[in-house]
Amino acid sequence: MPHDPVDLRSDTVTRPTPEMRAAIADAVVGDDVFGDDPTVKELEALAAELTGKEAGLFVPSGSMGNEVAILAHTRRGDEAIIEFDSHIYNYETAGPAVLSGVQLAPIKTERGIFSVSDIDEAIRPDDVHEPVTRLVCLENTHNRKGGIVFPLDRMRDIREFTLRRGLRSHLDGARIFNAAVVSGIDAREYCATCDSVMFCLSKGLGAPIGSMLVGDTEFIRLAHRYRKLLGGGMRQAGIIAAAGVYALRHNIERLAEDHVRARRLAEALSRIDTIRVDLETVQSNIIVVDVSESGLTVDECILLLEQKGVLVVPFGRTTIRVVTHLDIDDDDIEKSVSVFEKVFAKS
Ligand code: TLP
After folding, report:
1. Hey, what CATH topology would domain 18-250 get?
2. Which residues are CB-neighbours of 260 under 8 A, at least 6 positions away?
């Protein structure tokens, strides 16, 4: 019998554990569009509490959470300042342009962390020819930059600046609990630096479906309307919210295990001569591997790794991404190291 492959494509691939499935089976449900689902309400209250915000909204996906936030913060013709390699700019199928009529002003950075002066330079003057700068979006941890943590003091500086300049701010915190666990800083501290935060239940936290949007009561009231507009009003959603409640109660602290395994794997990969890993960026559960010196294309690398039982994804023209998560154990790390060593051995 061939073994299951080691699936390092994303932390989205986790499957609910028997305990989480039991929580799903026992969920008390109602029609959430009527506001009747107690489990959804419990999840929204718990998300608000853990992020230090007034209110929460359960959304089907992280992308919908980000797009609902942009709809709620902006008007057509506005501009939002954002990092060049961010998820919103690269992977949400031009959602801000299509849904909000908002233009993005991307800032290029080396490691995903921009500064107050970067924002200052990107702000538009009050000129009839130009869009109105309305919103700043941050991402923490930063996916394409290898799971790097946006430092809290930098986020606080940005908060002080955006408030002073009358700008709104949104945090794509799909993996904000990874950032909190890496740094030992309460997620509330990070979330206090932005008006709204989206975080995912369906990534490292191990739930099958769903993300949360949190912010003040007025923002969430508006977001609720936009979620409905996008078709995100769900009925007996307590079935999936129960997995989210379980994830928030049981799976936050254990993210540290994913980080230790990612670090171990990254260090082993960095010792292979034909590939490159920037160990500085390996702070959480994501590793970006540069294969440009391997003599193989990204597609060839992926195929060879897959044939030997390790799944990864392409992540640019010369890089692949490797992600640790709840379903990856120490044996999987050992197996992955030996497969990478074979595939990338100098011929
Ligand atoms: N990221 C996915 C892919 O879409 C790339 C992944 O495998 O990492 N923000 C960030 C920072 C994300 O990484 C993702 C998903 C999202 C938002 C969107 O979440 P979903 O997939 O639930 O829409």
Report:
1. Aspartate Aminotransferase; domain 2 (3.40.640)
2. none
